[in-house]
Amino acid sequence: MMARLLRINPVYLVLLVLLIAIAIQSPHFLQPTGYMNFLKRAAPIAILAVGQLYVITSGGFDLSTGSVVTLTVIGSSILLGQNPDATWMVITAMLAGGVVIGVVNALVVAYLRVPSIIATLGMMITLGGIALTWSGGSPRGYLPDTYRFFGRVLIKDLPVIKILPVALIVMVVVCGLLWLLMHRTNYGKLLHAVGDNPKSAHFAGVPYVQVRVVAFVVSSVTAVIAGILLGGFAGVSTSVGTGLELQAITAAVIGGAQLLGGRGAVGSTVAGALVLQAIFTLLNMLGFPKPIRDVVQGVILISAVALATYRRRKTGS
Amino acid sequence: MNGRIARFAPVLLLLAAFAIYIGIALATDQSQYLTFDNLLGLLGRSIALGITAVGQTFAILIASIDLSVANLISVAAVLASYIMSGDPSMMLPAVVAVLLVGAVVGLVNGLIITQLEVNPLIATLGMALILQGLLSASFTNFAGEVPKEFQTFAYGEVGGVSVSLVFLVILTGAAWAFLKFTRMGSNIYSVGGNADAAKLAGVRTARVVILAHVICSLCASVAGLYLASRLRSGAPWIGRDGVYDLESIAVVVIGGTVLAGGRGGVWGTLVGVMIFSLIDSIFNIAGVDAFAKQILRGVIIVAAVAVYAARSKRIEA
Amino acid sequence: MAAPVFELNGITKEFPGIKALDDVTFDCQAGEVHALVGENGAGKSTLIKVLSGVYLPDAGAVLLDGTARRFTHPLQSLAAGISVIYQEFSLLPDRTVAQNIFLGRELSKWGMLDHARMQNETNRVLAMFGDRHRFDADTQVSDLAVGEQQMVEIAKAISLDAQVIVMDEPTAALNDHESELLFDVVDQLRNQGRSVVYITHRMHEIRRLADRVTVLKDGQIAASFDHVPEPDVIIHAMVGRALDDFYPEAAKDDETGEPVITVQGGDNAKLHDINLKLRAGEITGFAGIQGAGRTALALALFGVEPFRDGTVTMSSVPALFASPRQAVRAGVVMLPGDRKSEGLSLMQSVRDNGMLSARAFSRMTGSPRSSEHASIADMDKSFQDLDIRAANLDVEIQSLSGGNQQKAIVARWLALNPKVLIFVEPTRGIDVNTKASIYARMRSLARGGAAVMVISSDLPEVLGVSDRIMVMRDGRIVAEMDRGATEAEVMAAATGEDLRGAAA
Fold this sequence. Notes:
Chain A is an all-alpha fold. Chain A has helices at 2-7, 10-25, 32-57, 65-82, 87-110, 116-135, 145-152, 166-183, 186-196, 198-203, 208-233, 244-254, 266-285, 292-315; strands at 154-158, 162-165.
């Protein structure tokens, strides 16, 4: 019993402590509008983090996801500016674009043997350039309500919880599906094996290129989904996705993902994203200026990895 | 045989880029771009990248990497112009303060990597976040200004050649001599080539790693000083806008220093910088617009690294 | 007898679950070559690591020139004049010979490296090799052949003025010419009054070089001779039991079936004109010195570095695979020599490692608990049949012993009913008892109708398990022998010269 308790990822405990702290600071948080708003804001980063987790578990990084978010928001606003009724077509087009970006990332990494951090940084610059070219440097788009539905709308008058943000539904569905894929299918096992030791996976007959392609595609597609949500409650700008890739990596690392591959869990990554969002919320409540978030996030990123290294050395595994 | 070609690959690339440059200049009838002054001016536009890349060479030679250089450049530039505030007598204190900050950042990076055993990518990404956060929390726009005297660094000339260009060449020469003629320089190659063997032979590898990171950060802060001098003031976004992290890594790799460490040198890096400024100039005289340029840059960086990755694979086999 | 330069007295060293050394005493005098022999896993390298300070002994003493020493780091033993040349060289490939020789103790003058003096000193040491080397202080190590790299390691030891030089199977990667050069160098070291500990299991090298011979077996001294005895005496001490029990029985006449895989004129960068049939029910062993092409052949058949030319067929269907995945799908599987880097997902559970290939050939979205090839229950049963010992099957596989890890890889492949199994160095790092069970498993796989291919640098192992022995040299198959071939016959074919006179 005790042993089982000890095996629970400490991230859940940290999350609990942070949520209690928020509730003490602001009792309003315990009202449905309080915590539902919190979850709504956390949804994009949680989705991004789980997508990033796939790439991290496969042994790489995806630094292009922030720029995919930006491109999604800008691209959608431009396309919908011309034809506001085409929401579903635009969303489909964006998701298809995400697939293409993921495939390109994976092929550059797998076949051209470019380290993923460089390949995806290059993709980030390229996509940033495309976003600027497309918008002419100053986006003036607008997103119709049909599009903003996913990020902004709250379903009201429900029993018990009273309100439910659509963004939360999207998060639960996306993360749930990705949890199934990671933990309840052969693919998830192969993903872990490829990230753990690509050569032995190759020698065991694992189609490792396909496995990595799927991981990068998952990452880019989650970035498109996160972009659609963010388009709902943030404005249209060329900086909407800036830095999100690092938040996603930080969340995954807080959740205990093993850098350079082989270990990763969807549940604790979502918890990691909520921890990050809770910390940002707390900093906000305590009146710190917004840039301090970056500082705190940097410290967390380093200490989470250092702590993981330390624990692994201690336990000798 | 293959190895020999590999050693001259950067020079061959440079010649190819140069040939394209001349070709386009002649084809578009812009022979004014072919004067000696103009060619010197080419390199002059890449001084900041050059200084940063010389430092990045040290980090990569020990099989590490530094993704915090861009933000450190911003910090250095803002700090310099803020402390100077147009007062010539504050030049020395400002330079000392900036170099001190650089040394501390490098030291911390090195300590995190060696003592906490944090993956260098994460350690320096975390540092980048911390620096950017601290800077943005304190400054939101151009801060202070540098006195006219300090602008000599960027705009002065000695014997018809710009001071900064002379500085870059001297810096590269000094770095080369350090690597070639000192024990520490020798240790840098040994640690990058095979850290275990170096350790077994009595090299204190942690010190070597820390020193390389200190040198890397010092170079980045000097690049910040240069940019402050050139822009006459420092702003918190100049490092990130220049993409100095990715570009410095790219020119180091193009210059023949391998990402796995232990092989390469600073002259190659300088050649890499020249290749990059030539590519820039080719875009300019060919009339490629700024956003498209950014797209092409992302693609070229990844392609360049891919070419080298493929090459080193052949040598391994 | 003169006082020994160093003595290891009653050394005992235990690792979790295994007594690697048990009361071992070993010494060496000045101007003497002391051969240390024993099978893989007998404790030779552990003994050397105690001498060099990598391990501290649990009991016993290390004496140097009569004084007890306590080395806690290889640097200390190095400073005391003990140099160990491991099979895995510790050279920096991108640096020059001189830079390697002075690694970590570079000479400097006024704070600047004294390149000239280091070069002179290096050339002075290299001069000891006479004109037999075609490299000098400035040559980059990556440009050197393996034998030359070994010379650099020896030169490093001499430049450190080591009085004790330990060589761990130094000829494993050398061709004959290079070996001869090495023997001359060892003679010179002896003449200079240095002590050489020479680890090998090649009888003719012992004949050629040794003054004394000590045989280790299962962590204990099996025999110690003040002279060089006949090879069969040494071999008996090494193996310590009747070979018939240890190795599986031969295939019976009616067991050998049709060829499962046939190679005709196979050719690539490392292999030339390979003609080969692997038959069902038969264990085919491959012998040869390092670099002879045995591993290249395994990698070619398995689709890692395929043949560029020639034909490969399995029951007249083309079987020239371009990737391991194609090979596995067709029933050709390989158990890699380097389990850690090529065979295992170290952080995953024993079960997941066993299930890996079954899952790799099932629907990606299918359940990992019961793939189309094996369910978890099947795998657990397979583990049980193979007698895999683990606290439970959910622990990370890195916590298992080498033998149990190897069995897990066997279980992985059994789930796919392979037709051809390629074992590369199947018992490297595996204790003696598990070895016997792995040999028995090979035989039962063959009896089940599979073709089994065994590649090992442990010649007695190849001779012991194989029904047929193929000898390779320079990327070609140069001889085919039946069970019962002697070590001398195989070595003669493997090296291309007749060593029978020297070995007998």
